[in-house]
Amino acid sequence: MKKIFGTDGIRGKAGEFPITPENIYKLGYLFVKITGYKNIAIGWDTRESSLWIANSLISGIENAGGKPVNLGCIPTPVLSFCTSDSFDGGVMITASHNPYTDNGIKFFNYKGEKISDEVENEITKEFYNFLGEIKLSEKIKNILFIEEKIVKTYLSHIKNKIDLSKIIKTYPVDCANGATSLFIELAQKTLNIKLNPYNTNPDGKNINLKCGAAQPDFIKKESFAFDGDGDRIMGKDLNGNIINGDIILMFLADKLNLDKLVGTVMTNMAVESFCKERKIEFYRTKVGDRFVKEKMNETNAKLGGETSGHIILTDLNSTGDSFAVYLKILELLNTFKIDINDLTKKYRLFPQKVINIPVKEKKPFEQIKGFKKLMEKCEIILGDKGRIFPRYSGTENLLRILIECQAEDRVNEAQKIIKNFFK
């Protein structure tokens, strides 16, 4: 039985398994039947395939006895909040930071949180046993709209959580030609704030294309950036240094005087050191914002996130919310009279490299000849002030190897050995 769920929902090339009209229908149908949810919020990003996926999903939900409500082209965290506020469950159509040729599905429970492993496993089991008739229909003909009345409940919530009057100086934000593109115009108008967004002209194919948080090399200097579905945030200072999720976590934990912080196995060791100095309890989880949120629930932590820019601040939302975190960052920068360029100076990271190695199959590491000795050799080079961590991507056929150390020359040496090994 082929696995269909990855670390963040279901994702793949649009038109190929599992992202086909019939399969999307099944998933919508089974989501209703297995969870018992009736009123389902649906949102999507700007990919051209989102149209037929939405129609297939709606068909499946309706034929299972559910009532789909289309919120339109909105960010994932907005869908999450609206689900927790007004619906039994939610479904977001997106492949997040992937190119437009991919698409996917993220399922949410009534709390606006990603569904559990147990529900995913039940959906997978029934997916392969599905014998029902597939009745596809076309309910929507355009994806570039927003159901403003419902979405404004999210904006009212943000207005109550962030002191917008303190935001005098702002920094531009890259919307990645994605799900925040239409939304940010509504947000500026509703919140009466000027944010200078750019890359807000989606054409169905330009989402994440040389733009957005997933392509940090293309972020403009002294600005921030969202990814395609608006659940990640990154930034860049005047010198071109990237302000990643780890820097944002340290900044927020510092200025909000928090006593707990959740990261992942990929979180920079500098964050751990930062927490130790400030007597902040620090926890690591598997990669995936769902696992971060689970650990936050377990430890009662208010802040958690990933290096990639998923930042969960529970006072704002129950999931990674780039727009809300962006406004919170602006509020704090203005309150403490800090410049965006101060972030990379004050919150310094250990030198770190992540090597992405394409693989045809995800073999257990012990089956890769010479891999154990390679890791041991690198561990000796990095010493006790560094570490090496290999893992397979949950969404792509990639082996990711993280190397970090206080001494940059040791990182470079280990990187060279690894690249030679995989030549």
Description:
By secondary structure, this protein is of the alpha/beta class. The protein folds into three domains: 10-143, 3-Layer(aba) Sandwich (Alpha-D-Glucose-1,6-Bisphosphate, Chain A, domain 3), CATH 3.40.120.10; 149-346, Alpha-D-Glucose-1,6-Bisphosphate, subunit A, domain 3 (Alpha-D-Glucose-1,6-Bisphosphate, Chain A, domain 3); 352-422, TATA-Binding Protein (2-Layer Sandwich). Helix content is 36%, strand content 19%. The protein has 13 helices and 17 strands. It has helices at residues 21-35, 50-63, 76-86, 117-128, 148-161, 180-191, 245-255, 269-277, 289-299, 322-335, 343-346, 371-382, 408-421, and strands at residues 10-13, 39-44, 67-73, 89-93, 102-108, 173-174, 197-198, 223-226, 233-236, 242-243, 260-264, 281-285, 303-305, 311-313, 352-358, 386-392, 398-405. The strands form five sheets. The chain has a five-stranded mixed sheet, sandwiched between helices. A five-stranded mixed sheet has the order 7-6-8-9-10. Strands 15-17-16 form a three-stranded antiparallel sheet, covered by helices on one side. Helix 6 links the parallel strand 6 and strand 7 (197-198). Helix 1 packs across helix 4 (117-128) and helix 3 (76-86) crosses helix 5 (148-161). It is globular, with a radius of gyration of 21 Å. The mean pLDDT is 96. One of its GO terms (molecular function) is phosphomannomutase activity. Pfam families: PGM_PMM_I, PGM_PMM_III, PGM_PMM_IV. One of its GO terms (cellular component) is cytosol.
